[in-house]
Amino acid sequence: MNFTSFDTWWWPYLFILIAGALATDIWRFLGVLVGGKMREDSQALVLVRCVATALVAGVIAQLILYPTGELANSPMWLRAGSAILGFGAFLLAGQRILVGVLTGEALLLAGLLIL
After folding, report:
1. Higher pLDDT, residue 40 or 74
2. Could you give the CA distance from residue 25 to residue 80 in angstroms, rounded to a whole number?
3. What are the boundaries of each domain within the chain?
4. For residues 115 and 106, what is the distance between their CA atoms, to the nearest angstrom?
5. 3: Cβ–Cβ under 8 A, 6 or more apart, which residues?
6. Cα torsion at 29, 34, 40, 45 (round to 10°)?
7. Of 111, 59, 115, 66, nearest to 85 (Cα)?
8. Where are the transmembrane segments (predicted)?
9. Which residues contact 96 (CB under 8 A, 6 or more apart)?
């Protein structure tokens, strides 16, 4: 069974849903089972938080330095500036993630509309 097994409109969506759930939900369930029994300041959870933060930083860096799709048509200074100013808004707002993300997105969209 693969992505092109059926010729119906809904099959690709179901395939993506099942494949995505199998790849991620197992680890989420294991994390809840194991993490619930660990102290919050344990070395293992500190390591997990560090790895998760590094993965997010890597994805953001890849989007800024090596974008694909429509984002590749935007200038580097706009991508980097939006990220930097979004991070600044995040810090000024008392480390509210939504404020940082919305600020960065708004600046990027505004820059794309102006250019």
Report:
1. 74
2. 33
3. 39-114
4. 14
5. 12, 15
6. -90
7. 111
8. 12-34, 46-64, 97-114
9. 90
Whether the predicted model's global pTM rises above the 0.85 cut: no
Q: What's the alpha-carbon Rg for the chain, to the nearest Å? A: 19
DSSP 73: G
Tokens linked to 94: 């008392």
Which residues fall within 8 angstroms of residue 78, CB to CB, at 6 or more apart?
A: 108, 111, 112, 115
- Integer Cα distance of 65 and 75 in angstroms: 10
* pLDDT tens sequence across 69-108: 889 999 999 999 999 999 999 999 999 999 999 999 999 9
DSSP E strands in 18-60: the ranges are none
Question: Which amino acid is residue 90, in one-letter code?
Answer: F
Residues 6 or more apart in contact with residue 11 via CB below 8 angstroms: 5
CB neighbourhood size of 48 (10 A): 15
